[in-house]
Amino acid sequence: MKVRLLHLTTSKRLHSHEVRPPVSDVDFQNEVSAYGMPNFAGDANDDWILEIDQGDSRDRESSKRLRTLRTKFRLRHVLTGCYLFSHKVKLPDWAFEQQEVTCNKNAVRENSLWFVETATHPNRKYSLWSSPFECLNINSTMQCLKMRPGLTTSSQASSPNFGNFNK
Length: 167
What we know:
Elements: E1 2-7, E2 12-16, E3 29-35, E4 48-54, E5 72-77, E6 83-90, E7 99-104, E8 114-116, E9 135-137, E10 159-161
Antiparallel strand pairs: 1-2, 1-4, 1-10, 2-3, 3-7, 4-5, 6-7, 8-9
């Protein structure tokens, strides 16, 4: 499934291209950034493929479609083929020492697995889970999709724009 991830507060999209990241300056990793502005449609560097890796055995649907807490997935960048990747490398002070997130062409599976922890939709009256963020890397505390009010500015994130909401 092709997706674009949108940070609701800033209207920036998760973006990657053939540029080395600020800390991990190696050929097999690309920079990941938030890019764009309100009313900017974006470009092909904003496109990702959501690949379901594993579902929960108690929920058969979770291996077929994205399900809160139950589906583990990877995000592959359409143009470069690299995977959204988190590791323990920290960014410098200018980035509040956040974890560096890159797009890795040789991504270790465990560091490129993600899951949705909470989901809301304007047509639903309830939240499926209550949490400070919507997506977590399986092997870290890296926040990736949505920052709720009250979190520190050192926890930057983006929000998914999944289009139509299905049951």
